[in-house]
Write a structure and sequence with these properties.
The chain is of the alpha/beta class. It contains eight helices and six strands; from the N terminus they run ββααβααβααβααβ. The chain has a three-stranded mixed beta sheet with strand order 2-1-3. Strands 4-5-6 form a three-stranded parallel beta sheet. Helix 5 (about 100-105) crosses helix 6, helix 6 (about 110-130) packs parallel to helix 8 and helix 7 (about 140-145) packs across helix 8. The longest helix has 20 residues, at about 155-170.
Length: about 180
């Protein structure tokens, strides 16, 4: 059996693949919908997300949900509590993806192979049409690629090269602005 993150169903995103749905993603989507309707910092986002999450975890019948069905649930939830102007703007924002760099370094321990594999992962994110990319574990990744247990001067240049390379790839995408977070 596969454990689902936060026990929420998978979202059929862009009719190409299923992506794990999370409360954070729902929250971003509800906030975005409220902002589009002129409600910056809407106070009911957390309550709407909790209600949606409960319904999806406990009462939703399938393990996947379509993009349109989820927008419909958000629309009905918001309209039911008396905010039809926000409900009309209900949407699902593009997801954010995390790429775990130490895993890539483990699979591809040479720099050339690492950068090739990183490009593949970033291109997969582009196919998904994402809102943001989070590169996780850059320090352990760099130390693995450099073959050292301690951070050295040469590590910083490789660190900077990975960040610059990732930015370059993301800027090549034919998409709206994509956030890049490096941790």
């Amino acid at each position: 059996m596969i454990a689902m993150p936060e026990r929420l169903p998978m979202l059929n995103w862009a009719e190409r693949q299923s992506i794990p749905l999370s409360e954070g993603w729902l929250s971003e989507s509800v906030d975005w919908s409220a902002e589009r309707a002129g409600y910056a910092n809407w106070e009911w986002t957390e309550d709407v997300v909790k209600a949606l999450s409960y319904y999806l975890e406990e009462e939703y019948a399938t393990m996947t949900i379509s993009h349109q069905d989820l927008i419909g649930l958000i629309h009905v939830s918001i309209k039911t509590i008396g905010y039809p102007e926000i409900a009309e703007h209900a949407t699902i924002v593009a997801p954010r993806v995390s790429i775990y760099l130490p895993e890539i370094a483990q699979e591809s321990p040479w720099e050339l192979a690492f950068f090739h594999r990183l490009r593949e992962k970033l291109e997969q994110a582009a196919e998904t049409v994402v809102r943001g990319v989070r590169l996780v574990g850059i320090r352990p990744c760099v130390k693995k690629l450099r073959g050292t247990n301690r951070w050295q001067v040469s590590c910083q240049s490789l660190n900077d090269e990975i960040v610059a390379y990732s930015r370059k790839i993301i800027l090549e995408w034919d998409q709206p602005a994509v956030d890049l977070l490096v941790r």
